[in-house]
Predict the 3D structure of the following.
Amino acid sequence: MQLKYMILSLLLLSNLAIADLKKDTITTDEVIITASRSPLLYSETGRTINTITQKEIHNLPYLNAQDVLKKSFNIDVRQRGNYGVQADLSIRGGNADQVLILLNGINVSDPQSGHHNMNLPIDYSSISKIEVMEGSGSRIYGAGAFAGVINFITDEQNKNENNFNLILGGDNYWSASANTAFTYKDFSSYFTISKSKSDGYAANTDFQSFNLFYHGKLKINTANIELQFGFTDKAFGANSFYTPEFPNQYEKTKTSFVSAKYDNGKENRTTIEVYARENQDQYRLFRDSMPDWYKSHNYHLTDVIGYNQKHTLVSFAGITNVGFTFKSEEIMSNVMGNAMQPVKVTGESFKFYTKSAFRLVQSYFIEHNLSLGNLSVSAGVSITGLRKYDWMIDPGVDFNFKIVDNFSIYANINSAHRLPTFTDLFYTDTVSLGNKDLKPEEALSYEIGSKYMNDFIKIQVAIFKRFGKNTIDWIKAEGDSLWRSINLTEVNSMGGEVFLTFYPKELFGINSFFDRIDFSYCYNTVENNTGYVLSEYVLNYLNHKANLSINHKLPLNLQMGWSFSYNARTGKYYEYSSKTIKDFDPYFLVDARISYDFDFATCYLQGKNLFNSNYIDISNVILPGRWIGIGISGKIQHSK
């Protein structure tokens, strides 16, 4: 990886040499970076965009980013285990491989499997804001943003302070984190470190996790330079994660990430991004003792290097963005890919990568944003090329029309593609069979919606339809002993959503009992014309999902936060204990947190799954029952 980072640095420096650092930076309020290649106001976007900030969830009972996504957005978070150990994220009836994950706008998705997309080098306390764009986004971010985009944004770095957080709870769980933000003139930096551990809520569900992350910004004249790097190390018992037949599974992952961004700050601006990500994955079917027939654990190493360049042109006709991206994706493994000369597995004795696969993805795009009175239009096309496949062309257009100052309607039509993961293509064992001949997924999505907001209420409603072709899934036909990776000829989905945020104290005054109320509901349906009984992903989706969160006051200056979540999943799974095919049961979760704010710290008591519901998101993986924890978080200001 050292050589690759040197190459990235040279690419960045070679482009800095052409920069002109003379003009002032464009500034925009209410910026939504995932809606377009140019910053847009939320009120002008022609997409379903939802955001939540750390301040807005300060008093809610969340432990990790997965909690926030599961109970604040219409996202299907299919968890394996607890505390954010591993989770698959999907939007609008999609699956984890169809959602693009960004960290401060940089792609951190994993080409091996969507199971590793949430190997982020930050913990919950470091997230300043989460932005979610729903629907096809390939014309904006290329192949991969098939069903939506989730962007995790770290601290805004406009302050000088140290923060800490410590929480202890059931299952011998503890989590500690500390971060510092420093600003001096045109330089700002943010550094965070965190560690968490638990004995687990059941046999072989223990885990430990360590994160390290840095984000720095420097302004030189009008130019802006950003650097971020991070590392995460996780090890966890994987009870029945991939097969219930062997519950003593175990997994270890190490993920490192680095990126640099340059923006010349001109009105007609140039933006350059370079990044690299490496993920090491060790999967053990047997954690300790192994039978004679079991030859080796699975070892995988994936490397991603990316280069993005964008030019923004401002004229009387609007804002035009044109550019290109290059990304290399490589895997070395002892089970996935094509045969190669053995390469030693780092840190392991007599273990070798014996297979590999490599692909270079190139993408070219153009987008134009135009405002004509109350009408805002964003239109463009992305063209993606890969040696094995034909060129993938993804056009799209978004419309937003402001009826009155606070109310607008919007519509969009967008095409999308998604490349098979290395797991889809190559993974084969005694119960699974990959498929090297898979084609990329294709989709055409339609959406119409409306949004209204004023000082005390925000409402957004949307209906959507997606026509899918060559959708990739792992299926098992009746009487077949294998899960097979195939292209489903046609998979169409449709549904509707509503989001509501209400600030009672803005309407009734600062003494209002309620501070904030959020409600969301999503309905999804997927046309099942495949004839297959068991589907690992595509035909297992949330049919109904409703979230309600409430912040309110209590006597003695206490704050109370509630989270209510209802999830009803469509689909079937094979229940190993009864040897029968069963439907997923709906479930209802209630979490709560009570806190008291001191001048420099907040003390809190929180509970998850208060009614001790039994539920599963993934076949045969039972999730934890009631959990209680106590914690303290605080900040210490320091001088510049």
In short: The mean pLDDT is 89.
